[in-house]
Design goal:
Helices cover about 15% and strands about 30% of the residues. The termini are far apart. It is an alpha/beta fold. The chain is built from 4 helices and 38 strands. The protein has an 11-stranded parallel beta sheet. An 11-stranded parallel beta sheet has the order 3-6-9-13-17-20-23-26-30-34-36, with no helix packed on it. The protein has 3 domains: about 1-40; about 40-195 and about 430-455, no CATH class; about 240-410, no CATH class.
Length: about 450
C-alpha cells in the first residue's frame, strides 16, 4: 500500500514538473507575441535571461550602449551571447575579446563597428569565439594592431576553433590577421578594399578559408607565411604554418597597389596548404609561391581553380628550396602569362598529378587518340624541360573528367586530436579539420541564434 501511494506521488510529481517546464516557455512566447502585436518595436526588453544573453543597442532597460561593456560583463563559463542591434550603429569601439562568447550582429549591412583608425577593430585572444553579422571597418594606426579582426595567440596559448562568418571587412589596413592560430574558420564573408591584405595568415595552421569574396585589396587577397627569422627556439612553437585550406572563394582584383609582388593568393615560405575550387581572376598575379632565404616552400597543392585574366596565372620564385608543390586540374584562361617557374634546377615541382594536368588556353598540342589529354607536354618558363605539364587537358576542367583519379584529392597527415585545455601548443590534426562544421551548418546555427533574439521585436 505504501509503495502504491509512493509510486502515485512520484508519477504526479513528474507530471507537474513536465507541465511546468513546458508552460514557462509558452508563457514567455505569449508575452513576446503580445508585445509584438501591440506595436511595441525597438524596445528590446531582455525577456529570457536564462539563455545568458546580453543585449547592446536599442532602448530596453538593462541593454548596454557599448559592446565592450557587455563583453566585460559576460560569464567566464563560455555560455554568453552578446547580441548587438543596429539602432545605435555605428559603434565606435576597439573591441577586445579574451573569453569564450558569441558576438552576433543583427544585420551585417547595418550593424557597423568602426575602429576609427586606432588599432584593431576586434582583437580576439581566446578560443571558440564566434563573430557574425557585422560590418567591421577602419582598423589601422601604428604598430601591429591594424586589422579589422585579429586572432592573436602566442607560443604558450594558441587561439583555436574560432568562427568568423557573415561579416564585411572593409577599409582596414589589413582585413583579417591570424597569428599563432589553429583550426579557425573564416567563411561567407566579404573582405574588400583593405589597404594591404585581405587575409594575413601568419604562423598559423589548419585554418579553413571558404565561401568568401576577397577583392580589391591593395597588396594580396590572402597571404600565408611563417615567421621568416624566428627569434628563439621557443618561438618555433608558434611557427607551425601548414595545412591551411583556401577553397571556394571568389578572389579578384587584388595586388594592384603593390610595388613588386601583389597576388590573389601568396604562399610565402609555407608548407602543405591546399588551394582549391576558387575563382581567381583579375589579380596582378593569380597565385604566387615563394621561398624566401633560410626557409623553404614544400608540398602545397593548387588544384581545381579557375585562374583567369591575371597578370601571371601561377608564378614560382625562390631564394631557397621550393619543391614538391603540385599544380593540377586548373583552368588557365586569359592570363597575360599563364605560368612561370623561377625555381632552381634541382627543385622539382609538378604541373600535373601523374595522370592529368591543367587546361592551358595557349596550348598548341594535339590529341590523336581523343582521350582528352594532349599528346605532347605543355612547357613552362623557365627551364621548360624540368617544368612541364605532361598531361595537359584539351578542354577546360569541369569536374567530370573520367580519368580523374584519387590523386586529385589532398593527402592529409593524421595527427593527434588535441584539446585546448590540456594541449595548448598542439596543432589540430588534418582529420579534425575535415570534421569541422560545414559552411551551411555554421550559417544555420548563427541564423537560429539571431532569429531567437529578434523575436522580442
Amino acid at each position: 500500500m505504501k509503495n502504491s501511494i509512493f509510486g502515485k506521488g512520484l508519477v504526479f510529481g513528474i507530471v507537474v514538473l513536465f507541465v511546468g517546464m513546458n508552460v514557462i516557455p509558452i508563457v514567455e512566447s505569449l508575452s513576446i507575441e503580445k508585445r509584438v502585436s501591440t506595436g511595441v518595436k525597438k524596445s528590446y526588453m531582455p525577456i529570457n535571461t536564462r539563455g545568458n544573453t546580453l543585449y547592446v543597442g536599442g532602448s530596453g532597460p538593462g541593454n548596454y550602449t557599448r559592446i565592450q561593456d557587455a563583453i566585460d560583463n559576460a560569464s567566464d563559463y563560455g555560455d554568453t551571447t552578446v547580441f548587438v542591434y543596429d539602432d545605435s550603429s555605428p559603434y565606435y569601439e576597439n573591441v577586445v575579446i579574451s573569453k569564450v562568447i558569441k558576438l552576433l550582429g543583427e544585420n551585417r549591412e547595418t550593424t557597423i563597428i568602426d575602429g576609427g583608425g586606432n588599432g584593431d577593430v576586434i582583437y580576439i585572444a581566446a578560443s571558440s569565439v564566434t563573430v557574425s553579422g557585422f560590418t567591421i571597418q577602419n582598423g589601422g594606426g601604428s604598430g601591429d594592431r591594424i586589422a579589422g579582426i585579429e586572432l592573436h595567440g602566442s607560443d604558450a596559448n594558441h587561439t583555436y576553433w574560432n568562427i568568423i562568418s557573415n561579416v564585411i571587412l572593409k577599409n582596414n589596413v589589413e582585413g583579417l590577421y591570424l597569428i599563432c592560430a589553429g583550426g579557425n574558420t573564416i567563411s561567407d564573408s566579404i573582405i574588400i578594399n583593405n589597404h594591404y591584405y585581405g587575409i594575413f595568415i601568419r604562423e598559423s595552421f589548419h585554418n579553413g578559408i571558404f565561401n568568401n569574396t576577397i577583392s580589391n585589396n591593395g597588396w594580396d587577397g590572402i597571404v600565408v607565411r611563417p615567421e621568416a627569422f624566428p627569434s628563439s627556439i621557443d618561438h618555433l612553437k608558434c611557427s607551425q604554418d601548414r595545412g591551411n585550406s583556401i577553397y571556394r572563394n571568389n578572389i579578384s582584383s587584388n595586388g594592384w597597389s603593390a610595388e613588386y609582388w601583389g597576388s590573389g593568393v601568396f604562399l610565402f615560405g609555407t608548407n602543405e596548404n591546399n588551394v582549391y575550387e576558387n575563382i581567381i581572376t583579375n589579380n596582378r598575379m593569380g597565385v604566387l609561391i615563394y621561398a624566401p632565404f633560410r626557409t623553404g616552400c614544400f608540398y602545397n597543392d593548387i588544384y581545381k581553380n579557375n585562374i583567369t585574366n591575371n597578370g601571371y596565372g601561377v608564378k614560382i620564385e625562390s631564394e631557397a628550396k621550393v619543391t614538391n608543390n603540385k599544380i593540377y586540374l586548373n583552368n588557365f584562361i586569359g592570363n597575360i602569362k599563364n605560368a612561370m617557374s623561377l625555381s632552381g634546377l634541382l627543385d622539382r615541382n609538378f604541373w600535373d598529378n601523374g595522370s592529368i594536368g591543367n587546361f592551358w588556353d595557349d596550348y598548341r598540342g594535339w590529341d590523336q587518340n581523343k582521350d582528352g589529354i594532349g599528346d605532347i607536354p605543355y612547357y613552362i618558363d623557365w627551364h621548360p624541360l624540368i617544368n612541364k605539364d605532361r598531361y595537359p587537358l584539351m578542354k577546360p576542367y569541369n569536374g567530370s573528367q573520367s580519368n580523374q583519379n584519387s590523386q586529385s584529392q589532398p593527402q592529409s597527415n593524421p595527427q593527434s586530436n588535441p584539446s585546448p585545455q590540456n594541449q595548448p601548443n598542439s596543432q589540430p590534426s588534418s582529420q579534425q579539420y575535415q570534421n569541422n562544421p560545414s559552411s551551411r551548418q555554421i550559417n544555420q546555427l548563427i541564423q537560429n541564434l539571431i532569429l531567437r533574439h529578434q523575436t522580442i521585436r
